[in-house]
Amino acid sequence: MEEQDPLQPGATPETEPAPMFSGVFVEPAPREIWRGRDLLIFLVLAVVWLVVSQIGALAIYAILRPITGWHATTSDMAQNAIFAVVAQVIYYAPLLVYIYVLVSVQYKLPFWEGIRWRWPGGRQAGQIFISGIVLAVGLLIVELWLPQNKGFPLEKLFSSPAAAYTLAAFSVTVAPFMEEIIFRGVLYAFFERMAGTGFALVLTALLFALIHVPEYWGAWSGVVLILVVGFVCSTARAITKSVVPGVILHVAYNGTLMCLLFVSSHHFSKFPGLYAHAG
Q1: Cβ contact 171:276 at 8 Å
Q2: Spatial separation of the C-alpha atoms in residues 184 and 160, rounded to whole Å
Q3: Across the 279 residues of the chain, what is the mean pLDDT of every consecutive 10-residue run?
Q4: Residue 188 CB-density burial (10 A; 0-12 exposed, 13-18 middle, 19+ buried)
Q5: CA-wise closest residue to 138 among 35, 44, 232
Q6: Domains of the chain: which residue ranges?
Q7: Of 79, 122, 247, 262, which residue has the fewest beta carbons closer than 10 angstroms?
Q8: Helix 244-264 vs helix 161-172: angle between axes, to the nearest 10 degrees?
Q9: Angle, in degrees to the nearest 10, between helices 244-264 and 220-240
């Protein structure tokens, strides 16, 4: 009897959601994808475009400034939340295009299937969401016992209600989706193929924390907490063989922090001391 390709539409292991956080899920051997050359191209693109996009965003602002009458100088943009969000979206866009082309064009897979987007079901999704809330509250409690550092770059971005609302919206929409696609959808798959699940889990968690270092420069306890979040999301990816649980955890974690900040700051009007370690 001819064996069905697990990556073809209709194959049960790939189209039905995996058991969530219980039992053992044995994923069928994937098609010959996630080659080292593709990883190298992705990493080069990510690093080079990071520099180019930031310079380009500043150049565009400098050109528009005399036309629009904006008063802030380009040097002020380092602490401008709206500019930071726009620049981050500009950075993410080509990376998402590359991932789509890699999966859909080069490997000829449906995009969502290629990045392991398997929806866990309503009840299980709710359980994961609650886990993200518990994670946020738990880490805030742990933070009370860690050294407190003020004035780090991310904290300075919360400079006005408009800035806070912009950052909050970004942190529960674009950031969780793109960061989980990149780290748990793409990089995890590459590293797992190269050296196994344990290697992929640890390395993606470390890289996830590393990219947040500039935001928490000087507040190293924040980096430690982000490392924990990355480890939890990577563990969810390893157990469920799906990127969706990481996205749900990420949204719940960031959303909880933003809600607590919203309440403690009197609707983002005052920032007395609670700041968010959102990833």
Answers
A1: yes
A2: 33
A3: 45 44 45 78 92 90 84 81 91 93 89 89 91 94 80 79 90 95 92 90 94 83 90 95 95 94 81 57
A4: buried
A5: 232
A6: 31-264
A7: 122
A8: 160
A9: 150
Name the token pair of 105: 């064009």
Q: Quick one: which of 46, 31, 39 has its CA closest to 102?
A: 39
CB-facing half-sphere around the CA of 220: CA atoms within 13 A: 1
pTM of the model: 0.81
Q: Are the C-beta atoms of 241 and 23 separated by less than 8 Å?
A: no
Q: Annotate 28-60 with DSSP letters as a single string.
A: PPPPS---HHHHHHHHHHHHHHHHHHHHHHHHH
Distant-in-sequence, close-in-space partners of 119: CB < 8 Å, separation ≥ 6: 17, 125, 244
Q: What is the pLDDT of residues 73-131, one digit of tens each?
A: 888 787 888 889 999 999 999 999 999 998 998 888 899 988 899 888 888 999 999 99
- d(Cα 9, Cα 109) in Å, to the nearest integer? 10
**What is the spatial distance between Cα 249 and Cα 234, in angstroms, rounded to a whole number?**
11
Can you tell me the distance from the alpha carbon of 38 to that of 190, in angstroms, rounded to the nearest whole number? 9
Q: How far apart are the first and last CA of the chain?
A: 48
Buried (b) or exposed (e) across 211-249, using 16+ Cβ within 10 A?
bbeebbeebebbbbbbbbbbbbbbbbbbbbbbbbbbbbb
Count the alpha carbons within 13 Å of 33 in the hemisphere toward its beta carbon: 21
Amino acid at residue number 130? I
Report the sign of the C-alpha dihedral through residues 109, 110, 112, 116, in that order. Answer: negative
DSSP element (H, E) containing 153: helix 153-157
